[in-house]
Prior knowledge:
Layout: E1 16-18, H1 30-41, H2 61-70, E2 78-81, H3 84-95, E3 102-107, H4 111-119, E4 123-130, E5 133-134, H5 136-144, E6 148-153, H6 167-179, E7 183-187, E8 212-217, E9 229-232, H7 235-249, H8 254-265, H9 268-295, E10 308-314, H10 319-328, E11 331-333, E12 350-356, H11 362-377
Parallel strand pairs: 1-11, 3-4, 3-6, 6-7, 7-8
Antiparallel strand pairs: 2-9, 4-5, 8-9, 10-12
Helix pairs in contact: 1-8, 2-8, 3-4, 3-7, 5-6, 9-11
Bound molecules: pyridoxal-5'-phosphate.
Amino acid sequence: xxxxxxxxAPRSPATIQFSRGVPPPEAIPAQELAAIARSVVTPPxxxxxxxxPSDGFxxxxxxxEAVAARHAADASQVFIGNGSLQILDLIATLLIGADRDVxxxxxxxxxxxxxxxxxxxxxxxxxxxxxxxxxxxxxxAQLRKGRTALIYLIPDxxxxxxxxxxxxxxxxxxxxxxxxxxxxxxxxxxRQLRLTGAEQPLFSELRSGARVITLGSLSKTVSPGLRxxxxxxxxxxxxxxxxxxxxxxxxxxxxCQSIAAExxxxxxxxxxxxxxxxxxxxxxxxxxxxxxAQFADSCIAVPEGGFFLGLMVRSRLxxxxxxxxxxxxxxxxxxGSAFFPRNEQPAAGTVFLRLPFHAxxxxxxxxxxTILHQIIRS
Length: 378
Ligand SMILES: Cc1ncc(COP(=O)(O)O)c(C=O)c1O
C-alpha cells in the first residue's frame, strides 16, 4: 500500500513498537534476581526441584504470607498461580455457567481477558468507559437483565486506556454488585505504579457486601518471567482455585515461588517498585505532553500511572488501513478493535489506539505519535 504520510522519510520497518506493555529491561532487577535464584537452589534445598504438594496447594507459604500482609488479608485467602492471567482463566472456568454466562467488562478492556471469557463460554458485554470509570447507569441497566456471572474491572491505570476508576464510581459499582449478587474481579497489576494523585481503595476494602476477587502480579513491578500472580478471595474459593489448578497443571514451579518469596523477604519488591516508578516518570510525563499537544481531543483519560494511554481517534482510514500505513512508516500498533467485545466494535469512522509508553524511550514515543498524527490528520 502506498504511504499515506509522504511528508515523513521512509523508516526501516518495525522500529517503534506501540504494541507491547512489557517492562523495559532496565526495570527488571536481573542481578538481584540471579543472586536470589542462586541462594534458593543452594543445597540442601532440593524441594524447589520437586513437585509442590498435590492436595490443593495454595502456593509457597512465605509468599502467601507476604501477599496477605500487603492486602491485610489472611494467608488462607491467597492463591498463587503462574501469572495472574492464568488465574483469571481458572476463575472464568469456575464462575461462568449455563445460567450465569454474562461477563461484564469495561469497554474497551484487556484483550486477553475478553478472549478468555469467550473461550470459557461467557457472553462478554462491554460497558462504556469514561475518564473516571464505567458508565454506572449502563452498568445497572445491564445487571437488571440478569445472568451476570461476574464484573471484570481494571480499576487502576487500566489496560488499555490508563483510566483509574474514581472513588464515587467504586462505591456505586460495589453497591450494585452487592445488590445484584455478582462477583467483582479487580485486576490490579499496575496498582503500585501510581505517579500522581491519591490512591483509591480496592473494591475488596469497600465492605459493601459484594463478593470481590483481587488479582495481583509481580510481572509489572519485578519480573514477568517469574510468572507470579495471585488471587485474594474467600478462603473456600481460593481452595477451589488450587484444586482446579492441580487438575490442570499438577504443580506450579516451586523454584519461581521461592524466588518470589525471597524478593518480598529481602525488600526487593518494594525497592523495585520505586525503581520502576522512577523509570516510568519521565516517560509518562513526556507521553502525556505529546498526546496533549497532538491528540488532546482524542485522549480518553490522563493516566495517573501505569503503562498506557488510550486514544479514540476520528479517522477516514479503517483500522486495518491505519495499521498498514503506520507499519510502512516503522510504527507497530496493536489492533484497537481487540480491546472491544466482538459485537461492540468502535463506531465507523473511529479507531481506538492503545499507546504503551513504558517500553519506549520518550523520543521514540514522540516520533511514533507524530507519524500517527500525520497519517490520521493528512
Ligand atoms: C490487566 C492485565 N491483567 C493481567 C495481565 C497479565 O499479567 P501476568 O503476567 O501476571 O499474567 C496483564 C498483562 O499485560 C494485564 O495488563
